[in-house]
Amino acid sequence: MRLHTIAAIPADGIGKEVIPAGLAVLEALAARQGDFALHVTEFPWGSDYYRANGRMMPEDGLDTLKPFDAIFFGAVGDKDLPDDVTLWGLRLKICQGFDQYANIRPTRVLPGLTSPLRSVSPGDIDWVIVRENSEGEYAGHGGRAHRGHPEEIATETSIFTRVGVTRIMRTAFRIAQRRPRKLLTVVTKSNAQRHGMVFWDEMAAEVAREFPDVTWEKELVDAMAARMVRTPASIDTVVATNLHADILSDLAGAVAGSLGVAPTANLDPERRHPSMFEPIHGSAFDIAGKGVANPVATFWTAAMMLDHLGETAAAAALMTAVEQVCADGVMTADVGGTADTATVTAAVIAAIEGKNQRS
Ligand code: NAD
Ligand code: MN
């Protein structure tokens, strides 16, 4: 029996609803597959923890997480706390502390869902967006001067390093290489951002020589946003900076039907540290506490986590179950259904159990 240790951090808002749903589904899967087990430890970190302790996680939180095989994360964000406090205090602390430099964001229109793009038919959208997750615009460098004065100035400095850019390029080329079309689009803004982005283009060309079987092209980020809407079928694998890919992947989530179905993995591809798996969406103040959050993003995220842990059969079984439930129309309101979180979760568990009875 293979055993994997999981640190679960639901954190805030609908994170507290979708992570328990994800854990229930994972438990059902492990029980049905019978050849692996998950040992889950839950950590009550986040905004409530902040109110009680003045920090989003304990000072030695990273040491606590380090021995785990993977981290299963909900979302941060609280109406009464500044977003930069909640984000930097927990999610970014883990991403940066564990050097999870590759953020992987697959996008597909699941069966039963409709893209808001009129021209999209099933199969037209099958993308993987690779987001640089350790430097760039979110490196945290910058400053403020002359606060409150007319000459007030604020800077936000993007940092790009040879190590940082080449390693994300390599990760993206490797992912593209494993996909049928072997096409990588390198997104920059090198017409306007003449330093960091020209550097990205140069590093792409350098790394591309190691992957002669991958076709690669350059696209400016604004043109890429338009292309995602106008000719989505022309896109396969995409690599972009922390900020550019953050924005493009929310667009990708929307184009695929809803942010409520979009998953992500924060990987340390070298596996020096645990990687972290989370739905792309945030804590969703508007629906938190109502039991109506779409758990599909979290289920897909759980499948990515299983893949990373080597449980590829379980990951595939989970996606089959999710697709079956979506195709059956058991969906939450954000994708046009009437089911709540618990109903979708129960349907996915039933599909997992049914599927295994047939096989
Ligand atoms: P959000 O992702 O929380 O919500 C955006 C919209 O999408 C809302 O209308 C919400 O109801 C809907 N939505 C999101 N997930 C859904 C789901 N699973 N099912 C159904 N509908 C869903 O983004 P926001 O409103 O910009 O931010 C709210 C808070 O979350 C902020 O504090 C923000 O900083 C934080 N945030 C955190 C993360 C993260 O933890 N990784 C990511 C994004 C935003
Ligand atoms: Mn985002």
TrEMBL record:
<dbReference type="GO" id="GO:0000287">
    <property type="term" value="F:magnesium ion binding"/>
</dbReference>
<keyword id="KW-0479">Metal-binding</keyword>
<dbReference type="GO" id="GO:0051287">
    <property type="term" value="F:NAD binding"/>
</dbReference>
<keyword id="KW-0560">Oxidoreductase</keyword>
<dbReference type="GO" id="GO:0050319">
    <property type="term" value="F:tartrate decarboxylase activity"/>
</dbReference>
<comment type="pathway">
    <text>Carbohydrate acid metabolism; tartrate degradation; 2-hydroxy-3-oxosuccinate from L-tartrate: step 1/1.</text>
</comment>
<dbReference type="InterPro" id="IPR019818">
    <property type="entry name" value="IsoCit/isopropylmalate_DH_CS"/>
</dbReference>
<keyword id="KW-0464">Manganese</keyword>
<comment type="pathway">
    <text>Carbohydrate acid metabolism; tartrate degradation; D-glycerate from L-tartrate: step 1/1.</text>
</comment>
<comment type="function">
    <text>Has multiple catalytic activities. Apart from catalyzing the oxidation of (+)-tartrate to oxaloglycolate, also converts meso-tartrate to D-glycerate and catalyzes the oxidative decarboxylation of D-malate to pyruvate.</text>
</comment>
<dbReference type="InterPro" id="IPR050501">
    <property type="entry name" value="ICDH/IPMDH"/>
</dbReference>
<dbReference type="InterPro" id="IPR011829">
    <property type="entry name" value="TTC_DH"/>
</dbReference>
<keyword id="KW-0520">NAD</keyword>
<dbReference type="InterPro" id="IPR024084">
    <property type="entry name" value="IsoPropMal-DH-like_dom"/>
</dbReference>
<feature type="domain" description="Isopropylmalate dehydrogenase-like">
    <location>
        <begin position="5"/>
        <end position="348"/>
    </location>
</feature>
<dbReference type="Pfam" id="PF00180">
    <property type="entry name" value="Iso_dh"/>
</dbReference>
<dbReference type="GO" id="GO:0046553">
    <property type="term" value="F:D-malate dehydrogenase (decarboxylating) (NAD+) activity"/>
</dbReference>
<protein>
    <recommendedName>
        <fullName>D-malate dehydrogenase [decarboxylating]</fullName>
        <ecNumber>1.1.1.83</ecNumber>
        <ecNumber>1.1.1.93</ecNumber>
        <ecNumber>4.1.1.73</ecNumber>
    </recommendedName>
</protein>
<dbReference type="GO" id="GO:0009027">
    <property type="term" value="F:tartrate dehydrogenase activity"/>
</dbReference>
<comment type="similarity">
    <text>Belongs to the isocitrate and isopropylmalate dehydrogenases family.</text>
</comment>
